[in-house]
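User: Hi! I have a protein structure encoded as tokens and I'd like to know what sequence might fold into it. I'm fairly new to this, so please keep things simple.
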């Protein structure tokens, strides 16, 4: 068997090699069928540690083997400029968060506004964002 070139190919080939269907792997890992299908379809390029560990146990591999196939989109960091970050912050403060996506992996950003008091006891609003899939965040 040729070596897998992507996370999707790696997971699919390991699953098939041990004779599991997507449903079987779902039952072994406590992941949903949709999660496994998304990974095998190449929609997920980076996995949270908990999902990686569950998959590794179900596929009988070391989590590090799975991590080797994870990747961040090349060139994604180029667009993370101060202006880009400020644009995300403005969108959060205006409530326009429905279409905010991570600049690294394109997953949905989880957002919130934290209310803090400044030195004069005035309320200051601080927008925060965190990717639902990778490590990108705005503190």
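Assistant: Happy to help. Inverse folding works backwards from shape to sequence: for each of the 139 positions I chose a residue that suits the local structure. Here it is:
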């Amino acid at each position: 068997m040729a070596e897998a070139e992507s996370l999707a190919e790696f997971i699919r080939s390991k699953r098939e090699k041990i004779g599991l269907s997507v449903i079987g792997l779902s039952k072994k890992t406590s992941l949903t069928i949709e999660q496994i299908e998304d990974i095998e379809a190449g929609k997920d390029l980076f996995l949270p540690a908990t999902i990686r560990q569950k998959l590794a146990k179900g596929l009988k591999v070391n989590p590090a083997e799975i991590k080797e196939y994870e990747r961040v989109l090349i060139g994604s960091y180029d667009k993370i400029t101060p202006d880009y970050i400020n644009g995300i912050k403005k969108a959060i403060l205006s409530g326009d968060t429905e279409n905010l996506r991570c600049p690294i992996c394109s997953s949905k950003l989880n957002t919130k506004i934290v209310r803090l008091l400044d030195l004069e006891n005035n309320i200051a609003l601080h927008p925060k964002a965190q990717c639902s899939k990778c490590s990108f965040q705005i503190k």
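A useful reference point when you look it over: The two ends are 45 Å apart (CA to CA). Feel free to ask if any position seems puzzling.
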